[in-house]
């Protein structure tokens, strides 16, 4: 029979090294490596004045953002609770609309957000309005709806962060869903107490240039000047109770981390807006939840350590990670353009106990 201690060597290596908490320097190094740069570019406001993020770049970023979110929420779809928050249109100007949601006591500290979904009711377009626009070509019967999180800075200025973007047909009506999980994450980390969640919704042409119609203006959502109660914007919050589903590996947010805390995953927010090197370079996101592994791990019996002395003490490390999509500005030939990049291993998904990189089987844990 094979000795039990030989099973240690059969476990796969974790994706990240032990102990280390992600720092701004490590993030910068990864970004420079991904872009094959030796140092962070210095971009001033003049470089950014006429910089616009094209629709295809936004779509690429949103696709990576949603794929990363699906990876992070995999396995958390079961036994979750659901809460619906009613919102309202605070202001509308041309094809841009501001939505507000009161979030007070909506997300208790003992609950983990799995997904947040914004639902807007697209009203049917009157036939007379369609007739006025004449026959719509295939490239002009759709509009792009973009959702951004709006934050108000301490100096009173605003900043928007791209959250979701999708195409809708002017001929359709009914509820449209947008994944706004990142917006609620931003709100949790950056907003002042009792500050509402603000979402900016804009409707634009799918294609720009000559020959395009104004059909995107036909896309209207209920409650934009209408009394339709059934169409009030809705925010769905899907959460997990950490007290019941602690197997997800997250630390108790209400308990301080001490020497006796077992290995767990703790929230850690990286604020990119506070990093000088990211100024005018990193366009999206303004920050992200990276998480970190904290706490201690049970150690193997001394007899086992004596038989296999190569293995060191067990440590709490990141055993599963996820990538971080970004939009950065690139300067080439005197022109500045936006580019999407994806940095691997930036978010901790799972923490485990390991000894020199080898995960310890559960049956060996005391």
TrEMBL record:
<keyword id="KW-0732">Signal</keyword>
<dbReference type="GO" id="GO:0008083">
    <property type="term" value="F:growth factor activity"/>
</dbReference>
<dbReference type="InterPro" id="IPR029034">
    <property type="entry name" value="Cystine-knot_cytokine"/>
</dbReference>
<keyword id="KW-0339">Growth factor</keyword>
<keyword id="KW-0217">Developmental protein</keyword>
<keyword id="KW-0202">Cytokine</keyword>
<protein>
    <recommendedName>
        <fullName>Left-right determination factor</fullName>
    </recommendedName>
</protein>
<feature type="signal peptide">
    <location>
        <begin position="1"/>
        <end position="21"/>
    </location>
</feature>
<dbReference type="GO" id="GO:0005160">
    <property type="term" value="F:transforming growth factor beta receptor binding"/>
</dbReference>
<comment type="similarity">
    <text>Belongs to the TGF-beta family.</text>
</comment>
<keyword id="KW-1015">Disulfide bond</keyword>
<feature type="domain" description="TGF-beta family profile">
    <location>
        <begin position="240"/>
        <end position="354"/>
    </location>
</feature>
<dbReference type="GO" id="GO:0005615">
    <property type="term" value="C:extracellular space"/>
</dbReference>
<dbReference type="InterPro" id="IPR015615">
    <property type="entry name" value="TGF-beta-rel"/>
</dbReference>
<dbReference type="GO" id="GO:0009948">
    <property type="term" value="P:anterior/posterior axis specification"/>
</dbReference>
<dbReference type="GO" id="GO:0005125">
    <property type="term" value="F:cytokine activity"/>
</dbReference>
<dbReference type="InterPro" id="IPR001111">
    <property type="entry name" value="TGF-b_propeptide"/>
</dbReference>
<keyword id="KW-0325">Glycoprotein</keyword>
<dbReference type="Pfam" id="PF00688">
    <property type="entry name" value="TGFb_propeptide"/>
</dbReference>
<dbReference type="Pfam" id="PF00019">
    <property type="entry name" value="TGF_beta"/>
</dbReference>
<dbReference type="InterPro" id="IPR001839">
    <property type="entry name" value="TGF-b_C"/>
</dbReference>
<keyword id="KW-0964">Secreted</keyword>
<dbReference type="InterPro" id="IPR003942">
    <property type="entry name" value="LRDF"/>
</dbReference>
<dbReference type="InterPro" id="IPR017948">
    <property type="entry name" value="TGFb_CS"/>
</dbReference>
């Amino acid at each position: 029979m094979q000795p039990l201690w030989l099973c240690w060597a059969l476990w796969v290596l974790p994706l990240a090294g032990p102990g280390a908490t992600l720092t701004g320097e490590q993030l910068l190094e990864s970004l420079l490596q991904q872009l094959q740069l030796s140092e962070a570019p210095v971009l001033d406001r003049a470089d950014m004045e006429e910089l616009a993020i094209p629709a295809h770049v936004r779509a690429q970023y949103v696709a990576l953002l949603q794929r990363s979110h699906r990876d992070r929420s995999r396995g958390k779809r079961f036994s979750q609770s659901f809460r619906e928050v009613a919102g309202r249109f605070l202001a509308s100007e041309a094809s841009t609309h501001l939505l507000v949601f009161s979030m007070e006591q909506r997300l208790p500290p003992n609950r983990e957000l799995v997904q947040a979904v914004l639902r807007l009711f697209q009203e049917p377009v009157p036939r007379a309005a369609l007739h006025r626009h004449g026959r719509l070509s295939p490239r002009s019967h759709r509009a792009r709806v973009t959702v951004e999180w709006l934050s108000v800075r301490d100096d009173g200025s605003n900043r928007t962060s791209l959250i979701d973007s999708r195409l809708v047909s002017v001929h359709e009506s009914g509820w449209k869903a947008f994944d706004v999980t990142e917006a609620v994450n931003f709100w949790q980390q950056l907003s002042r107490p009792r500050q509402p969640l603000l979402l900016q919704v804009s409707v634009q042409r799918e294609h720009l240039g000559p020959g395009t119609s104004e059909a995107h203006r036909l896309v209207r959502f209920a409650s934009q000047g209408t009394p339709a109660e059934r169409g009030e914007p809705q925010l769905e919050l899907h959460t997990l109770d950490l007290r019941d589903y602690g197997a997800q590996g997250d630390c108790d947010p209400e308990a301080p981390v001490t020497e006796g805390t077992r290995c767990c995953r703790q929230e850690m927010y990286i604020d990119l807006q506070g990093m000088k090197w990211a100024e005018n370079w990193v366009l999206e996101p303004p920050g992200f939840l990276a998480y970190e592994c904290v706490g201690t791990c049970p150690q193997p019996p001394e007899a086992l350590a004596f038989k296999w002395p190569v293995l060191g003490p067990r440590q709490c490390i990141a055993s599963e990670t996820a990538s971080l999509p970004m939009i950065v500005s690139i300067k080439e030939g005197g022109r500045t353009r936006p580019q999407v990049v994806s940095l691997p291993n930036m978010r901790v998904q799972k923490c485990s106990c390991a000894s020199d990189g080898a995960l310890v089987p559960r049956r060996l844990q005391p």
